[in-house]
Structure prediction request, 208 residues.
Amino acid sequence: VMRKRLSNISLCLVLAFSVSTTVSFAAQGGSIGQGDFSVMKGDQVVEQLKGQNPVQDSSMLVCDGKCMIKSEGISLVAADQAKFAIKNEADTFRLFLRSGSVDYVITEKARKIAFHTPEGVYSVADVIFNAGSDPVVRGTVTVTKDGKTEVSVKEGKLVFATADGMKTVNADEKIVIKRGKETEIVQMAAPQQYLAQPVMRSEEHTSE
Prediction:
């Protein structure tokens, strides 16, 4: 019984240390990953990460399943086989997305955010939270297999600094960098469940 109690106490101490280390690491500007990652060097897998681990800045990662990244002021959820890297700087958080899809949730304005994609860099100049709600801006960055890129906003607003000037992307809109480096704001298609359904005429009352 005594050994079991000591074992339980040791386990609690280890878990407490792990949680406190994770929180302090993220607070110091680092990033914590949760899930299964392959760490790449060129086309070779050099390390496999499982569970919760610190994420090294600029390491190219491939997500196996669904993976989460937590950094100061921003959280990411990467889709299966998304290939990406992150970099924490004192004033900027950078996401380098090579391919796949990554959802983002921004909860603070302390740092600027930049999305680096094969077609260009999307630099966020301002984050605008919805009034009267939780301070959050969420959306998705996607790079297709042919390198086409878009950054969508699903909640809140983002203001991007572009070669054409400042561009505001509202909820349910996305910004696209064209081949000529021009930017375009596009209205996102309404979800299928919100599309108007055709009205079926009833034959029951035609005789009245």
Q: What stands out?
A: The first strand starts at residue 31 and ends at 41. Helices lie at 2-27. The chain is about 10% helix and 50% strand.
